């Protein structure tokens, strides 16, 4: 039996280690309760002064017991030992303290704590600026914020989208009864609680409800809820964020209580909840008292001492002094007395406490020191004594002799702070209530209400009544039930409580600035004197003081220290707490793992990969792939050991000299039907389609309203009032949305419908001088002669037994047939064409060769040669702009703006390097004077650049200021490596300038 | 050159796929114990129909040709045997005939329908899959933000459909009287969706069947 474990509390033992030492706990323990049971006093070192710190609380408020769990890939930093459920084999260590928590190098600096006032880092590490990175590294190492794993996370996380009528946050007494009232109306209810068991504060309570002890009452209520099909119970689930439109996020820890890493299944799950109504029943945090050396291990919250005794069977000490401003903490004296260990005294700051529970404590013969303050704790790594003294009624001065109480445990209570975090997330401004000496949740901004302790109602009967009403009300407002209560009243045994005293800073015999440190925020070592100093240095706003002192910045987010800190600030500023106000809480309520936030959107599921019907064939041929939008397109098809350049040379020459085949299925395809289709299309493109006959195709360019090119492609007339529009691969969705936008908002009178058929059709482009011969082998119902089926025509026919549509469109400048079949036949048609082309050595080619071939022809790629600031004229494509269209077209007016007609715009030209083997880097800047000093006058840039195997030299497309009138001029591309490549401005059409080859 | 014409359905490469978490002592002993079964429908006709819902002649003509009422209530579909019409928007419907021939349907409808309409064969670009098993509803929660449970209390509760996001792709999701769900997914996103489903279904045991 561990030395602090009560004999009445038994269970199966669990082995664990902490900072390398082996210990035993029992089933049901948290790491914190197990450490306390084993008498481990020092669990960490404070952030700034590296003072030894012990376990202070028992839940999310814990500021000191910040630990690293496990090692290796699954290690988790910065967990609170109070929230880590113990499992067999658990390994934990302190996140800070080097070389160990018992001997800490920084502690030596800490001994000179007065040398590190608030703003110490700002003040000390200001200059020289460039050394800040060095300082920061040192500070982080010294302070210790835990270690993140460097390996990939071995665990799996996912998300669930939930919808409910009523979400109840917190399964303490108020939450449980709220859920029950809502559940019985048939409402869809989710109730979530961060602890392993439902019950909240009742889990550590010895009270009775309706004649039953609390734990039994909880068990039957949870069983009742579990029986409802419309209720989801989520234990170990923290509601960590409350966002607009009643959207809340819950982190469910599914396996963390079993092992460090889940061998399979989901370690953590985020529930993304859209709730019609929300009941917040998040409870309250007990507030510590700020006295000198209140951070020595052995000082704890009174409710935490009771929780360890009652719930975990752990008495974390021997001789208890209770220090309180209220009746509530007297319960801790009663609970401790039950363990058989000594209650040295109850120190009450109030001059005349008269509650029933005070009498109950006195009746046990326990000394009650009224009108006293516990002004200082003594001890190093554990409390050895408490110094108590009479204080004045307002709690501002010590007014009598100091007395030493021999003690090793101090339980303190400065009242309770409602956990208003989630309400605060919604933007509701907390309201100070002097009656409860705390902030209540502000007026609701969303469909939510608070019930119980988080609303400032601290008696059990009140919590139950409020919870029930809130549940019924929420259900009613979600459209379920009539708001009536099934269980309107509860019979509860509890002491009636007398008013508490507001005491935020316990006076000392010395002034605050001279007294030993009186800590407000334990994790970040913010003391009362630090806050007062910040005020003396001119800080007034609570937000500024927070940032200057770091109050509330730790992983506990000021759950304990905030109220005391603000009150001390208010006092120093000589204003009320309400005037001072509070800082705003934001998500997350407690730290949330990145793994859970990412969910399953990782690795191959991070972003969809879109495949064509021939994707497996490409893979089997060893294709390298290129990302085009979300599509995976074959980039090139290397034969054994071939480099990209060699493969592209081979593929390109095959197309120019015989025949190649390209998977062009990814091009966007939009089916357009309606009596006004031709008119509509003519308004979208720069040229006209009014006279395009069935069987014919036309190339067009689309502009945005600003006159700049936004997409291009071919449009075919399939039948009267029926067209097929091709878009770029990346532009497909954008073009469809663009068409719908103009039809729905500007020209609803035009009768036209659009339907995406991108996925329906598979396209295999057969191109090269031998293309006709290949097609002829698999298609015998189309007359293929140039006279019967010419360039920019399309025909219906049968290819390899499949009904197909063939377009004579060319992006290579060669004789081309684009064979389209429904995608189920995609692989069949592809393999049939490959087989038919075998005798011509038909060569599959990828996007890289496609780019080279089209660049040889000077065909632009929208988005590569254009960048949203190029007009058709800039691209030397005036020929595609219809000047005399009856209506107009989008962007037409902008083509006449002074800026779009000015001379010296960047214009598309070809660049031919003087040395043919030099390939310009894409993006290289173009200058006219290679000898000009930096900064040089940049005249343009290279947009596309390749080595052309067909031509035997490099080619490039560039946009150059006034380029169209500079043919023959030599320009220079200065490179980062110091070279400067000279090139001649030439026509952008390098190959077959008359365009004869595609017309054969 | 091959003589036979091979068709590859959208989930061709996933037929027979199976995934489950290797939980020691798990409930799943073999492939037959799956909480999620994905079954791809056989090759079917899928046609996108556009037209004026306010034009009663149009609605009647569609009903007559397909022997099925054109659903005009948002989020509903009608079904007769192998043929279904899904409401996609105020002027847009998806016609699916399991095992049907889209060319025949298109030709018949073009003959019967007058005025400004659009009918487009999209059969090659999508597929219909059925998702059944005890985990089907949970899979939808993992994959989509839509409130499918709300269908249980909607009016009517049966014959519901929604076109919505599905993981990072999209799907047309509808309910069946047997408690299972039908999904129409796009071909180019199908590999992603199939892998998503196999991954999300792993904890329940998941397999893909050929229809």
TrEMBL record, chain A:
TM helices/strands, residue ranges: none
Domain Aminomethyltransferase C-terminal: 906-992
Sequence ranges assigned to domain SoxA A3 in this UniProt record: 516-600
GO molecular function list: sarcosine oxidase activity; transaminase activity
GO annotation, biological process: tetrahydrofolate metabolic process
Keywords: Aminotransferase, Oxidoreductase, Transferase
Official protein name in the record: Sarcosine oxidase, alpha subunit
InterPro entries noted in UniProt: 2Fe-2S-bd_N, BFD-like_2Fe2S-bd_dom_sf, FAD/NAD-bd_sf, FAD/NAD-binding_dom, GcvT/YgfZ/DmdA, GcvT/YgfZ_C, GcvT_C, GCVT_N
Domain GCVT N-terminal: 614-885
Family label: Belongs to the GcvT family.
From TrEMBL, chain B:
Pfam families tied to this protein: SoxG (PF04268)
SUPFAM superfamilies, alphabetized: Folate-binding domain
Domain of life where this protein originates: Bacteria
InterPro entries tied to this protein: SoxG, TrmE/GcvT-like
Annotated protein name in UniProt: Sarcosine oxidase gamma subunit
Species name: gamma proteobacterium HTCC2207
């Amino acid at each position: 039996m561990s030395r602090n474990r009560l004999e009445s509390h038994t269970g199966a033992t669990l082995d664990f280690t902490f900072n390398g030492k082996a210990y035993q706990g029992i089933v049901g323990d948290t790491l914190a309760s197990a450490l306390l049971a084993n008498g481990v006093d020092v669990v960490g070192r404070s952030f700034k002064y590296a003072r030894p710190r012990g376990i202070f609380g028992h839940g999310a408020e814990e500021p000191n017991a910040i630990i690293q769990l496990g090692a290796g890939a699954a290690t988790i930093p910065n967990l609170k030992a109070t929230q880590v459920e113990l499992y067999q084999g658990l390994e934990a260590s302190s996140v800070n303290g080097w070389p160990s928590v018992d001997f800490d190098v920084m502690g030596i600096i800490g001994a000179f704590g007065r040398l590190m006032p608030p703003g110490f880092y700002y003040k000390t590490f200001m200059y020289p600026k460039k050394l800040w990175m060095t300082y920061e590294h040192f500070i982080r190492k010294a302070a210790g914020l835990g270690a993140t794993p460097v390996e990939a996370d071995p665990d799996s996380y996912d998300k669930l989208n939930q919808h409910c009528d009523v979400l109840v946050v917190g399964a303490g007494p108020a939450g449980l009864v709220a859920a029950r009232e809502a559940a019985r109306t048939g409402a869809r209810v989710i109730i979530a609680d961060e602890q392993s068991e439902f019950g909240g504060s009742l889990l550590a309570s010895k009270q009775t409800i309706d004649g039953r002890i609390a734990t039994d009452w909880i068990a039957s209520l949870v069983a009742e809820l579990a029986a409802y099909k419309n209720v989801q119970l989520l234990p170990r689930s923290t509601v960590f964020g409350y966002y607009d439109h009643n959207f809340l996020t819950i982190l469910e820890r599914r396996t963390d209580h079993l092992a460090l890493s889940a061998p399979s299944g989901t370690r953590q799950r985020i529930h993304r909840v859209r709730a019609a109504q929300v009941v917040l029943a998040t409870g309250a945090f007990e507030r510590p008292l700020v006295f000198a050396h209140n951070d020595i291990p052995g000082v704890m919250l009174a409710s935490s001492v009771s929780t360890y005794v009652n719930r975990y069977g752990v008495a974390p000490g021997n001789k208890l002094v209770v220090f309180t401003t209220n009746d509530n903490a007297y319960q801790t004296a009663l609970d401790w007395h039950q363990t058989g260990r000594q209650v040295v005294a109850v120190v009450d700051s109030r001059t005349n406490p008269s509650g029933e529970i005070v009498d109950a404590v006195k009746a046990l013969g326990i000394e009650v020191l009224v009108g006293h303050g516990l002004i200082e704790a003594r001890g190093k790594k554990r409390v050895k004594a408490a110094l108590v003294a009479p204080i004045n009624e307002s709690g501002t001065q010590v007014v009598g002799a100091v007395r030493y109480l021999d003690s090793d445990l101090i339980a303190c209570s400065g009242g309770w702070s409602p956990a208003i975090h989630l309400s605060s997330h919604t933007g509701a401004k907390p309201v100070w209530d002097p009656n409860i000496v705390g902030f209540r949740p502000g007026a609701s901004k969303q469909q939510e209400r608070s019930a119980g302790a988080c609303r400032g109602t601290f008696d059990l009967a009140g919590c139950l009544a409020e919870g029930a009403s809130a549940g019924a009300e929420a259900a009613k407002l979600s459209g379920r039930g009539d708001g009536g209560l099934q269980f309107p009243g509860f019979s509860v045994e509890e002491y009636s409580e007398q008013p508490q005293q507001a005491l935020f800073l316990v006076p000392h015999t010395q002034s605050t600035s001279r007294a030993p440190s009186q800590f407000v925020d334990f994790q970040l070592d913010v003391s009362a004197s630090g806050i007062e100093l910040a005020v003396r240095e001119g800080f007034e706003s609570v937000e500024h003081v927070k940032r200057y002192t770091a109050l509330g910045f730790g992983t506990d987010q000021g759950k304990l220290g905030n109220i005391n800190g603000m009150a001390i600030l208010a006092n120093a500023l000589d204003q009320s707490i309400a005037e001072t106000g509070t800082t705003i809480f934001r998500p997350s309520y407690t730290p949330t793992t990145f793994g859970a936030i990412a969910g399953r959107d990782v690795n191959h599921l991070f972003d969809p990969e879109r495949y064509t019907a021939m994707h497996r064939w490409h893979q089997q041929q060893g294709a390298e792939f290129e990302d085009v939008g979300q599509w995976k397109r074959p980039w090139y098809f290397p034969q054994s050991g071939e480099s990209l350049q060699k493969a592209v040379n081979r593929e390109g020459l095959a197309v120019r000299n015989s025949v190649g085949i390209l998977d062009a299925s990814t091009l966007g395809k939009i089916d357009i039907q309606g009596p006004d289709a031709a008119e509509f299309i003519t308004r979208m493109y720069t040229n006209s389609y009014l006279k395009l006959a069935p069987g014919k195709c036309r190339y067009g360019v689309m502009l945005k309203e600003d006159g700049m090119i936004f997409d291009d492609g071919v449009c075919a007339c399939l039948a009267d009032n029926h067209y097929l529009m091709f878009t770029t691969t990346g532009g497909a969705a954008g073009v469809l949305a663009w068409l719908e936008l103009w039809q729905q908002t500007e020209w609803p009178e035009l009768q036209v419908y659009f339907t995406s058929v991108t996925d329906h059709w598979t396209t295999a482009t057969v191109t090269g001088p031998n293309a006709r011969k290949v097609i002829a082998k698999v298609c015998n119902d189309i007359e293929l002669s140039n006279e019967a089926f010419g360039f920019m025509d399309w025909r219906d026919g049968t290819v390899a037994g499949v009904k197909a549509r063939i377009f004579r469109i060319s992006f290579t400048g060669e004789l081309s047939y684009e064979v389209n079949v429904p995608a189920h036949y995609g692989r069949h048609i592809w393999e049939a064409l490959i087989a038919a082309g075998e005798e011509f050595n038909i060569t599959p080619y990828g996007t890289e060769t496609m780019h080279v071939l089209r660049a040889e022809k000077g065909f632009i790629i929208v988005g590569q040669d254009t960048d949203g600031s190029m007009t058709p004229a800039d691209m030397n494509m005036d020929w595609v702009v219809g000047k005399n269209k009856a209506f107009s077209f989008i962007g037409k007016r902008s083509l006449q703006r002074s800026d779009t007609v000015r001379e010296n715009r960047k214009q598309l030209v070809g660049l031919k390097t003087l040395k043919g083997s030099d390939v310009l880097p894409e993006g290289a800047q173009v200058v006219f004077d290679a000898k000009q000093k930096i900064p040089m006058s940049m005249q343009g840039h290279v947009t596309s650049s390749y080595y052309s195997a067909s031509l035997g030299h490099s080619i490039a497309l560039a946009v150059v200021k006034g380029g169209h009138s500079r043919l023959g001029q030599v320009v220079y591309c200065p490179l980062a490596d110091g070279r400067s490549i000279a090139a001649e401005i030439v026509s952008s059409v390098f190959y077959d300038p008359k365009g004869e080859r595609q017309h054969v | 050159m091959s003589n036979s014409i091979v068709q590859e359905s959208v989930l061709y490469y996933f037929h027979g796929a199976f995934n489950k978490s290797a939980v020691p002592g798990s409930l799943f002993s073999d492939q037959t114990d799956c909480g999620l079964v994905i079954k791809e429908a056989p090759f079917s006709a899928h046609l996108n129909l556009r037209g004026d819902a306010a034009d009663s002649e149009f609605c009647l003509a569609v009903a007559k040709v397909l022997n099925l009422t054109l659903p005009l209530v948002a989020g509903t579909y009608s079904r007769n045997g192998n043929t279904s019409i899904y409401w996609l928007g105020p002027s847009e419907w998806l016609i699916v005939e399991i095992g049907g021939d889209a060319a025949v349907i298109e030709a018949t409808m073009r003959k019967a329908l007058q005025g400004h309409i659009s009918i487009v064969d999209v059969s090659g670009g999508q597929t219909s899959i059925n998702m059944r098993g005890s985990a089907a509803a949970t899979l939808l929660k993992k994959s989509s933000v839509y409130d499918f449970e709300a269908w249980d209390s909607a009016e009517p509760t049966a014959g519901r459909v929604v076109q919505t996001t599905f993981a990072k792709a999209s799907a047309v999701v509808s309910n069946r009287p047997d408690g299972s769900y039908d999904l129409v997914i796009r071909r180019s996103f199908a590999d992603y969706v199939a892998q998503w489903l196999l991954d999300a279904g792993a904890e329940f045991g998941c397999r893909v069947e050929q229809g």
